[in-house]
């Protein structure tokens, strides 16, 4: 491996040599604002294969790429609103943005889920190099598998075998880098299928209930439940809720739980996707299942909740962010009583409930 | 005494995790999201959901075992598994696998409560015996503060194995508030790391946000109100500032983070003053937040109470923490006797005892 010591005057020469190596499918160790990275042409299969044999045990990891700006990124990944916000305002910098890939990179770069991490390093030499090379290079850290994060060329040489070192072609040595944490990774792909203020549900004929405050919400729960209570224990009862963040979807569920004599505290199911509570109505024991599809990447992920079993009597099911999964779960709702509810925020405590019982 | 080797499985929510411990030392700890496990073990499947524990589990067990360098599965002393709380079908995968392994290898099976894992995650040591949290000797009784995407709890620990839930969120978890506010600011997922990153350059006093329930006479929390306050607040600011909105994001992140940390700290301090724990340990994904760590340490130092935080890898869900809880259970002789009837229980709390343990 050739080691080039970076000075004030040799940047052009270094860029020139690095590009030659990259174009020939070689591996280049380079400095960034976090740690030393290892670059291979992300569009060249030979280069990526070489990198993966250097990384040995890391074959099970996707590789992030470094490039110059949003325009260049748009060639390789789909940039949605969230990604745009980050590119426009916080890059270059130590953030890796994950987007859906466009499958234009060598195999082994994108994850097997088809997502791709992108970095725009806040390091002028590398930005200049990328601008001239016009193709993305890998931005994975230069350490061998599970060895420490490299802040100097010595960190790399001390922790790799002769065989691994033989695969390296060039190192750009900027001396010892300040110890900064690896980049922060954010996934923007959750925002692909819906946005924060998604539309409300469509009804054939809706009924409206106005609530001035939380007491009004409780009254609404009373009213709507009285219309379906005969079916408790016979059919699954499914409440499909739609409404903005903070509309009171969990509050609705809390009052429903109260009605069903649930003893445990009803808390948000966003993280666990589904929470279940034992309750009863009259002498009938029921299970209240509280589902939130907020974190689903796609509707079919509800399969992870065993929907055949889920939408059976005596279960009473509340689904938050129902629009995301409504069409998909239709197949499981044929025998259930379905109540569709839009919650519209009309004031700080007041809400308009639009509903339809199918 | 002969060393105890435990292989533990956690499939409580998103991640499939498997770890191998020698007593309280971590030999290996695999978490599926940190691995592109589909690539190594199954190839690419279209529309692959990220939570398909069934497809992950065998690969994770193999990798964890291989990295433990134990070589022979017969060296293991016991198999441990999270049986709750969590997502029922996900837990099921882990429980089934653990039962099969225990049967096949003729080993004892240990059932672990996921929250006990977070509570004891600061007890973990490296292969060389170094405590990751820098805790020399645990002192009892202590208080555990578990803060994640799904939980926000204060747990009183009289001794290992004896827990009391003294405070919890009444609505959203703290980690969920981070995710949802990140969504409002269009910063991607998960919200915690990116908000914390951008907050580094922000002014935490710039936007006054509520500290919900700060005056309530209990040790409970609420983050739903804070989320809603942020929603109205960011909508107004966006309208007022237009394109300049992005420039205030670092200040907003810092102000929001401060509100969460304060809300947690107010109740933790209150409980600490009243109950006088000998130490406080934190755990869960949000405990990786640097501001939370430093402010907790500084504020509780005044009360003479040391604060310990797990290494960042042990903050989020992982099986190493399940294995250490299992290790102490094994020493106490708490193994599953009736394996046939042993099953997952998605809605248990830290106080729940299995019928065999009562």
Give a brief description.
The complex is a heterodimer of chains A (358) and B (358). Chain A is an alpha/beta fold and 358 residues long.
Describe this entry's structure for a reader.
The complex is a heterodimer of chains A (about 350) and B (about 350). Chain A is α/β, with parallel strands linked by helices and about 350 residues long. Chain A has 2 domains: about 200 residues, DHBP synthase, CATH 3.90.870.10; about 150 residues, Rossmann fold, CATH 3.40.50.300. Chain A contains 11 helices and 18 strands. In chain A, the strands form 3 sheets. In chain A, strands 12-18-17-13-16-15-14 form a 7-stranded mixed sheet, with helices on one face. In chain A, strands 4, 5, 6, 7, 8 and 11 form a 6-stranded mixed sheet that branches. In chain A, strands 1-10-2-3-9 form a 5-stranded mixed sheet, covered by helices on one side. In chain A, α8 packs across α9. Chain B is an alpha/beta fold and about 350 residues long. Chain B has 10 helices and 10 strands. In chain B, α5 packs antiparallel against α8 and α8 packs parallel to α9. About 0% of the residues of chain B have low confidence. Classes of the chains: A alpha/beta (about 350), B alpha/beta (about 350). At the A-B interface, α4, β6, β11 and β14 of A face α1, α3, α5, α6 and α7 of B.
**The CATH top-level class label of the largest domain in chain B:** Alpha Beta
Total number of beta strands of chain A: 18
Number of helices of chain B: 10
Strand content of chain B: 15-25%
Number of domains of chain A: 2
Low-confidence runs of chain B: 42-48
Fourth CATH level, the homologous superfamily of the largest domain in chain A: DHBP synthase
- The assigned CATH architecture of the largest domain in chain B is 2-Layer Sandwich
Element order of chain B: H for helix, E for strand? EEEHHEHEHEEEHHHHEHEH
Largest sheet of chain B: 5 strands, mixed
CA distance, first residue to last residue of chain B: 28 Å
Principal-axes shape call of chain B: globular
Fold-level CATH name of the largest domain in chain A:
DHBP synthase
As for the number of domains of chain B, it is: 2
Q: What's the assembly state of these chains?
A: heterodimer
**Average of the residue pLDDT scores of chain B:** 93
Order of helices and strands of chain A: EHEEHEHEHEEHEEHHEEEHEHEEHEHEE
CATH architecture of the largest domain in chain A: Alpha-Beta Complex
Helix content of chain A: 25-40%
The largest sheet of chain A, given as strand count, sense and whether it forms a barrel, is: 7 strands, mixed
């Amino acid at each position: 491996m050739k080691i080039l010591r970076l000075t004030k005057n040799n940047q052009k020469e270094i860029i020139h040599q690095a590009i030659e190596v990259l174009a020939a499918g070689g591996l280049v160790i380079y400095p960034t604002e976090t740690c030393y990275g290892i670059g291979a042409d992300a569009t060249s299969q030979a280069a990526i294969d070489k990198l993966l044999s250097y990384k040995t045990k890391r074959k099970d990891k996707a590789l992030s790429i470094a490039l110059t700006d949003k325009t260049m990124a748009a060639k390789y990944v789909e940039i949605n609103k969230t990604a745009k916000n980050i590119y426009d305002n916080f890059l270059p910098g130590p953030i890796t943005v994950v987007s859906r890939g466009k499958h234009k990179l060598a195999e082994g770069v994108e994850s097997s889920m088809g997502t791709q991490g992108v970095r725009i390093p806040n390091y002028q030499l590398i930005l200049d190099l990328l601008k001239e090379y016009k193709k993305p290079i890998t931005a994975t850290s230069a350490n061998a598998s599970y060895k420490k994060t490299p802040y100097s060329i010595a960190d790399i040489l001390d922790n790799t075998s002769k065989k691994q070192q033989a695969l390296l072609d060039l190192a750009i040595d900027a001396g010892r880098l300040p110890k900064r944490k690896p980049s922060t990774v954010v996934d923007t792909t959750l925002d692909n299928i819906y946005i924060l203020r998604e539309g409300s549900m469509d009804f054939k004929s809706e009924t409206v209930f106005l609530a001035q405050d939380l007491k009004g919400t409780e009254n609404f729960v009373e009213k709507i439940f009285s219309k379906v209570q005969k079916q408790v224990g016979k059919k699954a009862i499914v409440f499909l809720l739609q409404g903005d963040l903070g509309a009171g979807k969990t509050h609705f569920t809390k009052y429903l739980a109260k009605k069903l004599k649930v003893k445990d505290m009803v808390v948000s199911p966003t993280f666990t996707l589904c929470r279940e509570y034992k309750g009863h109505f009259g002498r009938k024991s029921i299970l209240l299942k509280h589902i939130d599809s907020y974190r689903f990447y796609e509707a079919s992920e509800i399969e992870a909740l065993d929907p055949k079993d889920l939408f059976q009597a005596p279960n009473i099911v509340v689904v938050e962010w129902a629009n995301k999964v409504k069409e998909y779960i239709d197949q499981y709702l044929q025998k259930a009583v379905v109540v569709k509810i839009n919650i519209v925020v009309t004031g700080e405590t007041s809400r308009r409930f639009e509903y339809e019982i199918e | 005494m002969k060393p105890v080797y435990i292989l533990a499985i956690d499939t409580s929510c998103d991640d499939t995790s498997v770890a191998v411990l020698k007593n309280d030392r971590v030999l290996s700890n695999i978490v599926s999201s940190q691995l592109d496990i589909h690539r190594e073990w199954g190839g690419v499947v279209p529309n692959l959901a990220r939570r398909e524990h069934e497809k992950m589990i065998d690969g994770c067990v193999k990798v964890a075992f291989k990295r433990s360098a134990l070589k022979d599965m017969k060296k293991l002393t016991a198999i441990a598994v999270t049986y709750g709380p969590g997502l029922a079908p996900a837990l099921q995968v882990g429980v089934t696998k653990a039962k099969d392994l225990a049967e096949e290898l003729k080993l004892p099976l240990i059932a672990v409560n996921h929250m006990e894992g977070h509570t004891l995650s600061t007890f973990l040591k490296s292969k060389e015996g170094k405590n990751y949290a820098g805790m020399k000797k645990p002192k009892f009784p202590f208080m555990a503060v578990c803060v994640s995407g799904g939980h926000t709890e204060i747990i009183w620990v009289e001794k290992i194995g004896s827990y009391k839930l003294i405070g919890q969120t009444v609505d959203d978890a703290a980690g969920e508030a981070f995710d949802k506010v990140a969504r409002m600011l269009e910063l991607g997922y998960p919200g915690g790391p990116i908000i914390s990153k951008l907050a580094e350059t922000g002014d935490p006093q710039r936007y006054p946000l509520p500290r919900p329930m700060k005056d309530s006479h209990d040790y409970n929390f609420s983050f739903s109100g804070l989320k809603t306050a942020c929603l109205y607040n960011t909508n107004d600011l966006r309208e007022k500032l237009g394109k300049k909105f992005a420039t205030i994001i670092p200040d907003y992140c810092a102000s929001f983070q401060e509100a969460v940390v304060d809300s947690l700290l107010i109740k933790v301090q209150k409980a600490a003053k009243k109950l006088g724990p000998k130490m406080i340990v934190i755990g869960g994904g949000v405990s990786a937040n640097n501001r939370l760590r430093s402010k907790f340490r500084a504020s509780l130092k005044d009360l003479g109470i040391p604060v310990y935080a797990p290494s960042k890898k042990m903050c989020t869900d992982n099986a190493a923490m399940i294995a250490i809880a299992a290790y102490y259970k094994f020493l106490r002789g708490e193994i599953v006797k009736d394996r046939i009837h042993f099953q997952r229980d998605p809605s248990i709390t830290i106080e729940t005892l299995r019928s065999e343990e009562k």
